[in-house]
Amino acid sequence: MLKITFLIYIGDIKLTEFPLLLAPMEDVSDPPFRALCKKHGADVMYTEFISSEGLIRDAAKSVQKLDIFEYERPVGIQIFGSEIESMKKATEVCDSANPDIIDINYGCPVKKVAGKGAGAGILQDIPKMVSLTKEIVKSTSLPVTVKTRLGWDENSKYIVEVAERLQDVGIKAISIHGRTRAQMYKGEADWSLIAAVKNNSRMKIPVFGNGDITSPEKALEYKNRFGVDGLMIGRASIGNPWFFNQVKSYINNGIILDPPTLKEKLDAVQEHLNFSIKWKGERLGILEMRRHYSNYFKGIPDFKRFRTQLVTLEKKEDLFNVLNSIEEQFIIQQQ
Question: For residue 97, which of 22, 30, 47 has the smallest C-alpha distance?
Fold first, then answer.
């Protein structure tokens, strides 16, 4: 029997039948990490979130986050802010970087963002959220997408209505994290409301689910159980860019791929470190790579002394010597 597939579109951007999106994660979803995720199966990339105020002030850190590369397309630039004029100007700046998508962050729960009415903070003012979105859609010819949460707290989970209103002002896809702002990242993500958005007969745009996708088995379960158009994957991919292909293999073929070998992990770390240094310079590239080592080497016995070296050494050559010594101790002695 011929299988009928339904491709997913964000505006005119054609994706696979069930796309996997790399979540925008501050201090994680930079070009070096995105390159590995793309290599290992991510379908849509999003940048780290970028401050609209930082962009229009030409702040170096914000502007650097606009760097995108041809091989990672389709790629979206995500911006956040609470002022309509600043967000419109930031959208124009993002346009000049030539992304495929403009994404609005209405989900970040951290106090320094939400406390200023940006990120998830705007969930306390839905009319402003809709107005801001409308103005951004009008400010660009690119498809605009939104990442958000169920609501501000347990008493304001209006996501079904909110998603419909955002669609009505022109967004082309929505990604929903199944928690409220009050929950931060605690407790279990509630996908029932994400399913309610997808099952709303008025919704015509793709609905992507996010939150607690920790295994290929759970990815398939949630695909079938909640009917979303695709998954946005965040924390499960940190130190594990192979996760995207693992999910695809299980969903498409029912095959659980073997986890990466230590050699494959070491190769990925070296690739990640090299790109990080090339993109940010040696000092900053080495410094910002330190947050990744524990995730890449999670579960490896007697690894503490190597980790201590990796997070304290300051020279590229010294770090690669440590990585080579890891290979010698854990791999060569096993042969």
Answer: 47
Select from 13, 19, 6, 4 the least CA-distant residue to 248. Answer: 19
Contact indicator for 309, 322 with CB cutoff of 8 Å:
yes
Closest C-alpha to 177, from 214, 131, 210:
210
Distance, C-alpha 270 to centroid of its chain: 22
Q: At what angle do helices 216-226 and 243-253 cross, to 10 degrees?
A: 60
The 10s digit of each residue's pLDDT in 217-259 is 999 999 999 999 999 999 999 999 999 999 999 999 999 999 9
282-296 vs 316-330: helix crossing angle, rounded to 10 = 20
> Shortest CA distance to 299 belongs to which of 259, 270, 245, 267?
259
Contacts of 127 (CB under 8 A, 6+ apart): none
Percent of the chain with pLDDT over 90: 83
Distance CA(17)–CA(20), nearest Å, equals 10
Domains of the chain: 9-253 (3.20.20.70), 262-334 (1.10.1200.80)
Q: Does pTM top 0.85 for this prediction?
A: yes
Q: Are strands 9-10 and 13-14 parallel, antiparallel or unpaired?
A: antiparallel
For residue 284 the two structure tokens come to 């900053």
Q: How far apart are CA 40 and CA 243, in angstroms?
A: 8
The rounded percent of the chain whose pLDDT value lies above 70 is: 97
Burial label, 200 (beta-carbon count in 10 A; 0-12, 13-18, 19+)? middle
* Partners of 207 in beta bridges: 174
pLDDT of residue 327: 79
Express each pLDDT in 5-36 by its tens digit.
668 999 999 999 999 999 999 889 999 999 99
CB 108 within 8 A of CB 49: yes
Give the pLDDT confidence of 278-332 residue by residue, as tens digits. Answer: 999 999 999 999 989 999 998 887 788 898 999 999 999 999 999 988 877 776 5
Q: Which residues are catalytic?
A: 108
